[in-house]
Amino acid sequence: MPLTPLDIHNKEFTRGFRGYDEDEVNEFLDQVIKDYELVIREKKELFDRVNELEEKLGHFSNIETTLNKSILIAQETAEDVKRNAEKEAKLIIKESEKNADRIINEALSKSRKIALEIEELKKQASVYRTRFRMLLQAQLEMLETDEWDDLGKHAEEDLELTDSSKI
């Protein structure tokens, strides 16, 4: 067991015939006691400081561990968010492609229908023009015939006949 300052202070030396000077030994022992007390006090302070620093180190180690776990969780969460965003983007793209195909098919169907309607209108216009041309030709032929002159004569004869029947 190590010596304490009290052990040093209470130490008694045996006296010999030509022993040491008692006052000089006592002064030296007093100085050793003071120095020893100082060393013990410093040792206790350093021990307390080491304990305090070890507690802080433990605390900071816990914080470091917690932060590392938090970083790992954040990284995993970021990866999950990224994967989910990629899946959602793919779904949006597929849905957009389906909508685009549907819109294109509807547009093609409408354009075919309009093309058929245009063809039908062209046929109707052709028939109409043909009939109109035939009508005009018939009217021109009628105008070019001598029947117009005969119509005038027949009208006069009819008038004369109606007048004579009245008498």
Automatic annotation (TrEMBL):
Signal peptide: none annotated. This is Cell division initiation protein. Belongs to the DivIVA family. It comes from Evansella vedderi. It is found in: Cytoplasm. Keywords: Cell cycle, Cell division, Coiled coil, Cytoplasm. Residues 36-124 form a coiled coil. GO terms for biological process: cell division. Gene3D superfamilies: 6.10.250.660.
